[in-house]
Every structure is written in structure tokens, then in C-alpha cells.
Amino acid sequence: MSSQRQPVATASSYYAHQHHPHHHQHPHHHPSLALHPPHPAAFSPAPPSVYHDPAALASLAYRPLQLPLQHATHQQQTASSEQTQLPLAAQAAGPYQHPSFRQHHSNNNNHHHQLSHRSRAQARQRQLSAMAYQQPPTPASPDDELAQLQKLSEAYEPETTGPLVGQRQPSTAITTEYASADPVYQAKTAALPQKYSHYRTVRGDGKCGWRAVAFGYFEALIHHGDPDRFAMEEARLRSMMNVMVEAGFQAMMIEEFAEETISLLRKVAEAIPLGTAEDALSEAFNDQMTQDYIITHIRTITAAWMKTHDENYAPWLLGQTVDQYCNQSVLPMAAEIDHVGLVALKDALLSPAGMSLEVLYLDRSEGSEVTMHRFDPVNAGGYTIGSVRLLYRPGHYDLLYKPEDLPAPPPPPAATAVPTYLQYGSSHDPVYDLGVSDFMTSIPGMSYANLSQPGWMSSSYASGVDFLNTPAPVQACTQALPTPSAPAPQPQISSQPVYVPASTPSQMVPPPTQMPHELAIRTSVAQPSLAHNDFQHQLSIGPFRASAWQYEPDFVSATSQMPFQTSIFRNSHFNTAHFLNPEFQPEQWDPDDEYATATSSTSSKGSRHKTNG
Amino acid sequence: MSSNKRLMKELGEITASPPEGCTITPPTEDMFIWDVTMEGPTDSVYAGGKYHIQIVLPKEYPFKPPVLSFKTKIYHPNVSNDERGAMCLGMLKAEEWKPPNKISEVLKLVRAVLAAPQPDDAVETGIAEQFKNDRKSFDKVAKEWVGKYAK
């Protein structure tokens, strides 16, 4: 079944076929030579050498011409190496002797020239079918074959490399991964990053579901960030010991598993003020021993919960008692989580902590988006402190994140750092993580812009109002961007422009505070790469722009007809479009003008950009 | 480290109250190798025999199962008839092992299997066949082996 063999087989069969006419012309042709590749290159066990061997390439290139010189060469080679190469040839071609293999050659001998291309494809096809049947050479019956395949599938051990829990990465990687998959996967993975911006791989060693939920549980606590919540969870997990003892576990045996989870809770809680909580968590979960303890702990919690609430789960276990199910599918080291176990784990671990669980099914089912199954917390008065989101691909779980699950962004890297004024709260934080900040800033009024003049104010006015109406959990932002000059996070500033310092504090201009709707003005080193060209262009006109009438003439003419035009004016001879006007200019319809006149000055600015850009 | 803690805990417990018919010799050098002497169950053909069982604990214990081997030869369908004397128990398979399992529970199970061999889950199929079809000969050989090797 080794995939390395395939190219060799292809090569040898290909050569055997291709050079067949030589053998027919050979006076002492022996039938066994039909399978005997005459060219030495065909014997090479390493496929690349076949393709890199100039002689082999030459024979490929000249094959249809059947040059006499080549005949001679090949015959000579064949004759001289016949004796020594035959065993090798048999060895090379041996496993691939499909029943129809030989027949194929004799059938196509006479049509070699016409069929060379087609027969190559045929040979390939046969090769594939030979490969498929190779392991059980000739299965006696479908049952045997199935049994064989079953055996192979059981013996198969998936590749379990990579970190136990990987780094969070943009979920566009999943889209890329499935770019060449079938359309269903393509569509679903293409839509995925719109809702779930990030994901994290979990090693597929059979424990991925357990590990993913456990990791997500800690991560949700970190994201929530409340030290009291950690203390509550510690107390709750300790009290779960009673449930486990009630379920028949020996306290002595399980408390060390619980201790590991609890000590990680403490460790992470202590690391939160230092900002290293995620690192501590990642480190713990990538330590085989530590995560084994934690996974065993949550397995035990799950089993204990199921055993003490068996009326909730027994109906879902087909033909199994809860005890049997726990012994087979929850507690063993190698037991993968299945649906009932997942529900029980959620009930025992996540729901009491106020966390919801979402499972996103990425499979070949109908639809253009991943199918979401949401398990809401059943208690805590519907109060949710966070979500654990799992991406399920048949047989495997990874972690998914929505933008709101992400921690506040780290300070932007120095290269692209600009003094940044965040108009919005956390809803736009992920701009950084998404790597689309350039794109975002190019939207007028959307986010920060490197202004040294207030010329964009009017266009951003609308969004400024939005900003004021947004509760704006800006605290998280300011926490995440601590610099010496940063003011301490103050909840009361949430209705004020929040100044986020960055790498060039000396250039910063304090945010104006006189007018509540005024937006903070920032300075910046010029960063042409940040797609601020539009703004810069706009700003190059002058230090202050009172109205749209100070824009370039073409802009004014494009927009001038709009705001002050009444039907009376338009139909009078004062309108240059009126035929009685001495400077009569016929009106010409232009999509840009249409756009400009259709809406407010914000969009007219957009049209201006179009004209200028 | 944590594994050692667990081992010490279990060792303390098992020495204080060993499972019936078992004597644990405290490990001296290697904490991960335990020597157990198990008496054959009185109501079985192994009655009167004393079996030396070595338990090798993996470094990953309790996340990987311990490995049991009979150092004393025993005629039993579930114990391999070679130097290893490996015992095949479901709960000791890596994929079925549960970390909360304890060694004392394992030893209890071993003793139960001595009392009641499981020929359908055998390592020695020949002995299992004999056990199923010719119980008398099986009992005879087993008793002989007790006298020969397990006294």
C-alpha cells in the first residue's frame, strides 16, 4: 500500500508497454519480456530518476518516430542486460501483475502508434485498480474484502504530529486547505471566516474532543477575566468530588486529577494580570502529562455526572447502560468523545460555569455554511460568560473563535504602528488579528486615519455619533495596549474619545474634548503602505476645510447640483443645463454623478476618490 | 513527578491492605517495578501455588497501563507460556486502560482470572481449546505445573 511504489509501477508498466514493439521485432523474443522494461531507467526504484534520466527522456521524446538508431540501442541494451535484469524486473513488476495486465499488452500491440496516448491512460487506470486490490491480492468474497479493509482501517493510526494544542490562527487557513476540495467544502470553508475569524488546531490523537473542550473552558475563563469566577470554578470543581464519590469513584484516586485542573486554574488566574494567561494555558496543555491529568479529570467528571444523572442520558444510549457507556466511551484513555459524552461534558463542566457550547459541523451535508449546533447553558439564569466553539470535521474536533472571543489585540507591530484612535470598542478589535486593518482603514470614517488636519471630520460625523451611542467596551482595548504614557483604564471614559498611544507618542495630539461628537485627531508618521492615500490626498489641499465647496472644482461641479437644487432652479434659465442659459451645457448622465447626487456628502467623497484615484 | 506521587500513594495503600492472597515486596531501587507474590485461589487448580508476578509501570503511569508478567510458569489460557509470562487482560490494554484504575484492582482481577480462566480471550489457544474440550487433562497438567514450578 505504500504510496512510494506507485510511480515505480507506473513507470515500469509504462515502459513495458511503450517498448513492446521492440520485443516483437526481436528475433528471439520471449513472452516474459513483455513485462520486462528494456530501458535501465525503468528499473530504478526511485521514480524521480526515471524522469530525470536524459536517456529516458530521450526515449520518451522520440518514441513515436521509432528511429532505427534507437532500435539498435534498445535492442542492444535489452540483450546485454536481459539476464541480469530479469529478476529485478520481476521484482519490480511482480506485485503489480494485475490479471488483465498482460492481456492489455498483447491486445494493444498492433495499435501501438495510434493508441499510445490512450493506452497510457489505460495503463494508468489499470495501475490504479491494481493498487486498490493489491493488499488482498484477490479477495475471495466481498465479505472477506470488507474484513480485510476493516482490518486495515483498524490498524491505521492517524498521524499524530503537531502540537497538542496549536496556536490560534486565522480561519482563512481552513479555506485555503479546502481550496481544491469539492464545491460543498469550498463553499462552507469560504463562508467560515466571515463568522469565525480564528481557529486553533488540536492534535487528532483520539482525545481531541476532550482536549478542545477543556482548553476552551480555560480560555473562556481567561477571556471573561474575572478572578472571582476562577475562585468559583475552583470551588465548584472541588465540590464535584462529591459527585464523583457518589458515582463510585475513589476520592483518593481521582483527587490528583482534580488537583491538576485546579492548580492550572490558579496558575492561569495569577497570570491574567501579567497578560501571560494564554501562554501559561498553552504551555500546560502542550505538556503531555499535565493535559493527561486534566483530560482524565474531565472524563471522570463526565462519567460521574452521567452516572448520577443517568435518567438524562440513558435514553440516548442505544442498548447500553450508562455504566457500560462510561466504561467504553468516556473513561478509557483512548475513548473519543461522542455526542452523548459531549452533551454530558457540557452539562457537567461548561453549563454550570455559564458557558455555551457550539459545534460547527463541517461535512458534505447540504448548505453553504457549516452547520451549527448550539448547546446553551441551562442554568445561571441564561447568563453566559463565554462560549466554547468546536469545529467538527468527521472524527476530529478543533477550536473555533468568533471575533468576540478573542482577547484584546496586542499592540500593533512597530513597523505598521501609528498612533491609533479606536473609535469603537471591542467589536472592531479583531481588525488587527484579521490582518485587514489596511482594508478597514480605507473605509471612510471606519477606524483610525492618519490625519493631521480635521478635514475628514464632516465625513466621519455619522460614525462619530454611532460611536457615542455604542456602549464601547473600550476598557479592554486600553488594557491591551499599555504603554508608559497610557492613561489608566477608566470606565467613565467610555463616552469619551479614547486615546490609544503607540510608538510615536511625541506626535500625538490630545483628543479634543470640547465637542462631544468630535473625534480624536491623531498624528502619524506617514505610512503610505497603510492605504491612507485617499486621506492624504484629501489632506494635501489645505489645513482646514470648512465645507465641501473647497474641494476641487470637479468635485464641486459633481456635487453642486445636488444639495441646493430645487425644481424651480432646475427649470429656470439660471441652470446651465437650461437651454436659455448663456453658458448652456447639456446635462450628461454619468454613473459617478448619479452616485454623488444620490446620497450625502460621505458618498460624494467616495465618488471624488474615484475621480482622483 | 506526579506519577511518583500516585505510585507512592498506591504503594502505601497496597502495602497497608494488600488484595487477598497477594504480598507486595516494596520496590527498592526502581519505583516502577513491583514484585508481587500471589497465591493460587484455593478453589482452583492453582491452589497451593505461589506465583511471582512482576508489575512494570510505564513512566506515563497512570495514563498508560501497567504491564504484568508471570515470572513463575503457569498453565493457563490467559498467560503466555514463555519467559515473558504476559497476561492478557482487557483492562490492561492501552486503549481500554482507565487512569483511575488501581493496581490493587488489577491484582484482584488477575486472581479472579486465575480462578476462572477466560478461554475465549486467550493468548494460548492450545491451552484454551484443552480447557474447553478436555477439562480433565487441562486440570491435570495445570496441577502438575503447580507442583513443578509454583512451590
Characterization of this structure:
The complex is a heterodimer of chains A (613) and B (151). Chain A is α+β, with helices and mostly antiparallel strands and 613 residues long. Chain A contains 27 helices and 8 strands. Chain A has 4 domains: 130 residues, no CATH class; 241 residues, 3 helical TM bundles of succinate and fumarate reductases; 126 residues, no CATH class; 65 residues, no CATH class. Helices cover 50% and strands 7% of the residues of chain A. Chain A has a 6-stranded mixed β-sheet. In chain A, α26 runs antiparallel to α27. The longest helix of chain A has 26 residues. Chain B has one domain: Ubiquitin Conjugating Enzyme. Chain B is built from 4 helices and 4 strands; from the N terminus they run αββββααα. In chain B, a hairpin with a 7-residue loop joins β1 and β2. In chain B, α3 crosses α4. Chains A and B meet through α13 and α15 of A and α1 of B. Chain B: Pfam families: UQ_con. Chain B: This is UBC core domain-containing protein. Chain B: It comes from Zasmidium cellare. Chain A: This is ubiquitinyl hydrolase 1.
Features of the shown structure:
heterodimer; A: 613 residues; alpha+beta; 3 helical TM bundles of succinate and fumarate reductases; 4 domains; 6-stranded mixed β-sheet; two-stranded antiparallel ribbon; 27 helices; 8 strands; elongated; B: 151 residues; Ubiquitin Conjugating Enzyme; 4-stranded antiparallel β-sheet; 4 strands; 34% helix; 15% strand; globular
Total of domains of chain A: 4
Helix share, percent of chain B:
25-40%
Amount of helix of chain A: 40-55%
The tally of structural domains of chain B comes to: 1
- Mean of pLDDT of chain A: 65
**Topology order of chain B in helix (H) and strand (E) letters:** HEEEEHHH
Figure out the total of helices of chain B. 4
Instruction: Assign the structural class of chain A, choosing from mainly alpha, mainly beta, alpha/beta, alpha+beta, or little secondary structure.
Output: alpha+beta
Largest sheet of chain A: 6 strands, mixed
- CATH homologous superfamily of chain B, by name? Ubiquitin Conjugating Enzyme
Structural class of chain B: alpha+beta
CATH class of the largest domain in chain A: Mainly Alpha
- Give Rg of chain A in angstroms: 36 Å
Domain UBC core (chain B): 2-151
InterPro entries (chain B): UBC (IPR000608), UBQ-conjugating_enzyme/RWD (IPR016135)
Organism (chain B): Zasmidium cellare
Protein name (chain B): UBC core domain-containing protein
